[in-house]
Amino acid sequence: MYIYASFDYSAFLELAITDLEKRGIARENILAVPLDKRVEERMLLDTIHRADGISLFDGAAVLGAICMELGVIYGFVLEWGPITWGVFGLLGGAILGFVLDYFYGRIRGHKKEKASRNRVKAGESHNTEVILTILCENSQYEMVQKVLWDNMAFGVGKLDRLRNSIRKESASDGKEAT
Amino acid sequence: MEKKQPESIRNQRRPIGYVSELTINLLHLKHPLITAFWSALYPGLGFLIMGSYVKGFLLIIGATIVNHMAHINQAIIYGLTGQIFLAKEVLDIRWLLLYVPLQVFAAWSSYQLTVDLNKYAIIAGREDSAIIPMKIGTWDIGFIEKRIPWVAAGWSLLMPGLGHLYTHRIPTSFYLLTWWIGTSYMAHSLVAFHQTLLGNFSQAIAVISPEWFLFLVPIYPFAIYDSYVNTVEYNKLFDKEQSRFLIDNYQNPRFPMP
Question: What total number of domains does chain B contain?
Answer without folding.
Answer: 1
